[in-house]
Amino acid sequence: MPTIHTLNSIKILIYFDDHLPPHFHAIYNEYEELIEIHTLETYRGKLPSKQRKK
What we know:
By secondary structure, this protein is mostly beta strands. It has one domain (3-53). 9% of the residues lie in helices and 46% in strands. It has one helix and five strands. It has one helix at 49-53, and strands at 3-7, 10-13, 23-28, 31-36, 42-45. A hairpin with a 2-residue loop joins strand 3 (23-28) and strand 4 (31-36). It is globular and about 25 Å long. The mean pLDDT is 92.
């Protein structure tokens, strides 16, 4: 699981050869949100709103 970037304890990960639509994983403590790359819309999951704004 390659970590692309870490921002204030939020890990941004992109899995090679992952399913569509193109997205990245944002992980903060026990929360995980999948965010579409083109629209930045939530695909699945949820981060706390304070961390999501970052």
